[in-house]
Amino acid sequence: MDLDAAQAAVERACEEFKAPATASAASAVLLQFRSSPGVLQACRHILDRSHSLDARFHAAAALREAVVREWAALGPDGRNALRSYLMSYLVAHSEDPAMQVVRSSLISALAVLLKRSWLELEEADARMHHHRATFFSELEAATSSAAARGPSAAAAARRVGVQVLEAVVGEFCVSTSSPLGLPLEHHAKCAMDLQDHFLQDIFRHAVALGRAAAAVHDGATCAACLSLMTAVLAWDFRRSPSSASFSFATPQTLAARAAAAAAAAATTATSGATVTSAVAAAAAAAAGSSGPSAGADWASLLLSPDTLDWVAALLGQLTAAAAAPGAPVAARQLVAQARGVVVALSSLSSDVFPREGAEVLTRPGGGVRGGYLRAVLRCVVAWVASPRQVVAAAAAGDEMPLWEGCKAILALAAAHPPRLLEDAGNDVVAAAAAAGGTGSGAGARVQTPTAGCFLALLQALTLEVIRGSCCPDPEQWMVECRDMLVEAWALMVQRDCSSPLTLGLSVGALGPPSLPGLAEGAAAVFSVLVEAAMTAAGQQAADEGEDIDVENEAAEAAAEDARMAEAAMLARAAPAATFSLLAAAMAAAQQQLLAATAAGLAGGEVWAVSLERLCWLVRMAAHCLADSGAGETPLMPLPLSIAVEGGGPAVAAVEGLTAALLGLPALALQEGAAAVLSPRLMESCVWSLARWSDTYLFPEEAEGLPAALVAAYATRGSGQAEAVVDGLARLAATCLVAFPGEAELHGMVCTTLLPVLSRRRPLCTTLLECSRSWGELCGAFAGRTPQLSNGLAPKLQRWLSQSLCQAACGFPSADSPAGTPAAAAAGHYISQLLGPTAAEVRALAARPDLYDMTARADVIGTLCGMLEVLRGGACRGAAAAGPPARAAGWGLISELLAPLLVLQRAFGDDPRVGALLLKLAAAVVEHHVGYLPTDQAHMLMSWVLELLRQYRMGRAARVSVAAAAAAAARGRRKAYHLAHSQGHHHLHHHHRLHQNSNGQSGQRQDGVSGSAFLLQGGEDAARELRALLQLLTHITQRDVALAAAASDGWATASSAGSTPRSVNMSGTLPVLGAGAGGGGSSRGNTPKGPGVGVTATVALASAGAASACPSAAGGSGGGLTVGDNESGVAQVVLTGLDVLLPLLTPELLAAATAAGAGAAGGGGTGGKLARLLFSLLAYMMEVHPHAVVALPGPHFSTLLSCLAAGARGFSLVQQQQQQQQQQCTADATASGSASIANGTGGSAGGGGCTFSTSVLTSTSTSTTTSTSTPSSQPVAVSASGFDGVVVQSALEGLAGLAKYHHQSLINGGRGFGAHQAPAAAGGGPLVPYLVQLLMQIVLMGDVGSDVVELAGDALLPLLQSDPVAFSNLGAALVQVRAGEVCVCVYGCVCVFLSSSPHPPHPHPPQNSFTSSTDVRCSAIT
Amino acid sequence: MSDHEVETFESADAGASLTYPQQAGTVRKNGYIVISGRPCKVVDVSTSKTGKHGHAKCNFVAIDIFTSKKYEEMAPSSHNVEVPNISRKEYTVIDITDEGIVSLMDEAGNTRDDLFLPKGTDEAEKLAEIIKENWSNDKEMAVTVIKSMNEETISSVKVINETAK
């Protein structure tokens, strides 16, 4: 390259770039320059000679890129030369301020250069550190060489050196590194090595240099050093014994960490006006304070007084000056950076600190930790020493000192015992007050600094901030500061413990705080919080009249709840004071409400304010009294129960608050209360009482409760507990009846309060025996009172029904087996509750004008409700209430089986009813199938079969309409007639052809432009299919039940063996009564006589449904009987799968995926659908392989194709995968259509082919959709999990099948028998096909070792049973041309060798492999 | 018990009314509602309150099932709204004229010639195209006719039998 010409070109382009007209052409030139090969020389030339700063900048940027790109070409000498060149260039130009941007590019190039070469020569271990240390010594030499040019040049050179080090730290830190084109492991190793060997020296260097610079008032160097210190403190420390065994972070965790850092940066950005990068980094460090942090080996460095004292001094000198108006920007930034370092230092995790005995920590000075705390607090206290002024300053716009002070205080409170913190704080405050320096503001003086003056300062600060934050529209930082301070208090209260010996324990919440002043401080903070909330309630009520979006409100309420939980911790620290305060506030608000109502002001402002206050207070009271107890047995909060055990005022306080809490619903139950109390207040009441009841009302174990509370709320006899229980039941009923249309309130009652009431047996017993209101509620429900039926959403009817039925566990005989007289009560209760509903369902089904009814909106609505009532009551609720209730539930359901089929025929087309029917069926199976005697189980199985068949009848029509519409949409662009010759299967074929020829873009557009009804239909269908799959999955519980029964020795189902599995293996295969005339289904593949193999009913069902002929289903309904000596599980599930699989169309999966992407949680219905499907398949293949193998050919190959598609997993990186799949699909299409054209498969065989290909296309479609839809982010995330589970399940299924085959051959059976490989894969014997499939997965896929292991499980039995198949495959590999073999082997080796997440592209080997196997196939045939 | 059931459904005998009152709070997404005298499918429901302590209101966004026109309505959730009765009936297609008149036959063998191919919206045109396509290929079809508030249209089609050519 002509260097001068290049220089001229770049300079010209830089000039032209400034003019808009020529800018684009110039930028093209510059980009081309950057990416041109051999650009390094030109860069150096320009850097050295050009006078244009722009040209130099572009040269520097090009150089930075070229270092990575041309690394290999550079050679060791070139690299060294480049490194020295860069160093000397940087030092030489260190003083020129205009060169700033050029310098930063070159600095980062230098860092990249170092990192890229870091791990080279690794084998020469002895030389390694030398080689790495060389860089630092060279840097040192280069930066100190400038000393000859005078002090300012020397300082500038030093500064550059510090900047280089900062760039190195940033580059080596995994989360901030730049791409080098190397595996992630390289980054991780570099980071580990730097951390182990150099990071401390870098930090030490920064401290020393900074200290020296501060001494000579060199602000710029100080800033650079502070920045470097912050970068080191923000390093994500990891500890591992050796870098060799270092397990590098997965991309997910990296991404998560980056996201966390970004989030932290974002919060900083929103909160502060003057956010520097250093502050953001410090924020990120603090955000991860619970995560990795420097270890104990850093203690001497970080905790040494030298580290911080100059920063503190600097802050002391500069703070006042920087705060003054007109202070230079540089000074302000320096202060901000210094503060950032202090905050980062205060966020050290407790790992850093050396273990010190309690006596060391508690004596004056406090050992190392005490010294550190004093040093840090000296800075922090100085920022917030006069709370009022600080808050005022913050309000005036300078909020950073306050915000960072709060941050540091929170970090310190999280990492250190409050006692140490207070000791250190007291010393600092006292010293500051004595010195009368900057720190002694008004706030600190007013609180006389005797004992606890640090706490007093903290309290004063907190109070100021809380007061400041309850203005009408507080700023974000104000809210954050408040939350941080309250959290700090909560942490201190929690971690305070009396014994100094337990200081090491991080969580010592053993009782009320013992530190003098802490409980009082917490109480004071809490009372101000209450005060602020009361004020806020008044302000919020004032903007009444506007519409409030309920959804936003819900999100806010969740955040508010989290805050309340923290505040509750403060309150529990001093219950005597705070609880009575709360109770008094409630009484006051209640008085206010009553007064407003009496004065006729209901609806007015006073009324609204008092309601709002009550809402807050009642929630707060519940938070104080009880924890959420999610997933645990709720217990009284420990601090409270310890306080109450101590007796005294605490008992009275708890009782008083409880009484106040219970008093509010008493108000609600008065006549006409509904007009006065708002739905929202009732909601709060219901929520609070549910939480309270969960802990205090007839708990399962009353041991944790104080005697007084046990007597009042957990003992029957006195009447008080009964009255409370009855009151709660009445409250629930009142809320449901007296507040029509308030769906949220109803939801709270049905999903929160009632489940709590019906969960515990003692409570249920009380409800059943002593509560008249509960009886009335049950009566109203049983009688289908409009408010409790049509007035509630179906879902809530289900919850209501479930809770009411579940309360049957309160009958004393609930555990006795069904049939005994003692069990009658529970059974009677259930029948009473649900009988009328069941009768109504029966009556509806029996109506002669049923089909007219399907048009009636009211009938549909009522039916939905009734189905949900049955699902909640007769299934879930009854099952949870013990055997008698379960039996009663089944009794009701068993009479409804036939009517439900009738209803499905009539209403199945309505998506709502259809889905609910299937869900009901799934629930029936889930909760009853495991407990039924044999004959009834068979009845249920037959019913399920019939349900499936009917479903398919209705579904087939709808899917074909959907497919037709989709096909027509595509047909506009593509030649439609291509597909028509394929007759019935034209839609699938068309779909494939279209996809193959038109590629992704067309596909995507179709997906997006798919009409609304199509998508809608898809969502409905996906929901229904999921219910169906769940139904099938639950059926397999029957196996477990039978196994348990058999092992218990009272087997009724089978006498032939100990478990169903051994029964199956012994060959007594199940027989479904043969339905007549399944045309052409008498295949000769029943090797073991009539008892084995194809059941004609299955064949009939599939054939009948495939042709969508109504008469076939009608005929088969009667022909179905299940064999006597078998569970029938396999038959039902396999038939069900036969029904289901053809319905899993591409459109459906696409719609399901899209629907899932829309949902908040990601994951998606499509993913769940696939996972459910494949885990069921795996189960069937493992447990019932005999039944699977005995299936008719087409059905078997359908299942196999599905498994194969799952095992292939399509788990590769998505973009790579699409092409591959299209390749696959094209092959499948060609062979599939060929076989159809030849008529080999017959009509049923054609069905199988169609499906197998449709699975292929469907999977690819779902993938393409997931990558192409606008909201693809969550899908992409979920897809990785989705793949793993699916592949694993599919491989397990194949392994089960292979094991069966092997076992069967050994035992003299026929194994797979006459089954052939799926026609889509070219037919032929099955075992070679499977071997090939598995080899392909292992060799060609980018799979992990777990997948290989699973595939091996499947492969071994196959190889053992048919070694020829494997040797054929090997021979075929050798036969093909040598070049292709090379490519293939290369591909394999690449896959095996690269453990990186970015493996070489697997396409070429894939193709060659396909072709090689084609060769093999043709050779065989 | 059987008395009870009779009471529930006899109050509004089949076909007696075109619509049925239902509490607004229980109308869900994908349900139906009458807005401005048109039968509509609900595509979105949101609830809101007047102030924090007011009663809940429901805001419906719904699409006319015949014209695909979008409507919005707001109602207190405890009040009743009208919900259209909707019937679907399946017919076999026996003829399609050039003018787009479709001759249909129901299960009982009764014929009718008063319906046109669906039109007016994108989906309807698409459906019509499919029907014509199938017809020209001699396929036997069943169509579903949706009827609500005295208005009818063909809403879907399925091929019920392939006639070999």
Can you describe this structure?
Chain A is mostly helical and 1421 residues long. Chain A is built from 63 helices and 1 strand. Chain A is 73% helix and 0% strand. The longest helix of chain A is centred in the C-terminal third of the chain and has 38 residues. Chain A is globular and about 105 Å long. The two termini of chain A are 60 Å apart. The C terminus of chain A is likely disordered. Chain B has 165 residues and is mainly beta. In chain B, the strands form 3 sheets. In chain B, strands 9-8-7-10-11 form a 5-stranded antiparallel beta sheet, covered by helices on one side. In chain B, strands 2-3-4-5 form a 4-stranded antiparallel beta sheet, with no helix packed on it. Chain B has a two-stranded antiparallel ribbon with strand order 1-6. At the A-B interface, β1, α28, α32, α39 and α41 of A face α1, β1, β3, β7 and α2 of B. β1 of chain A pairs antiparallel with β3 of chain B, so a sheet runs across the interface.
Question: What do the pLDDT scores of chain A average to?
Answer: 69
Main-sheet strand order of chain B equals: 9-8-7-10-11
Please mark out the parts of chain A with pLDDT under 50 across 5 or more consecutive residues, or reply none.
240-292, 437-451, 498-509, 971-1015, 1049-1125, 1151-1165, 1210-1282, 1388-1421
What is the CA–CA distance across the termini of chain B?
57 Å
End-to-end gap of chain A: 60 Å
Radius of gyration based on Cα positions of chain B? 20 Å
- Biggest interchain interface, per-side counts: A-B, 71 and 60 residues
- Name the helix and strand elements of chain B from N-terminus to C-terminus, one letter apiece: HEEEEEEEEEHEE
What does the largest sheet of chain A look like?
none
Strand fraction of chain B equals over 45%
Family (chain B): Belongs to the eIF-5A family.
InterPro entries (chain B): IF5A-like, IF5A-like_N, IF5A_C, NA-bd_OB-fold, Rib_uL2_dom2, Trans_elong_IF5A_hypusine_site, Translation_prot_SH3-like_sf
GO biological process, one term (chain B): positive regulation of translational termination
Pfam families (chain B): eIF-5a (PF01287), IF5A-like_N (PF21485)
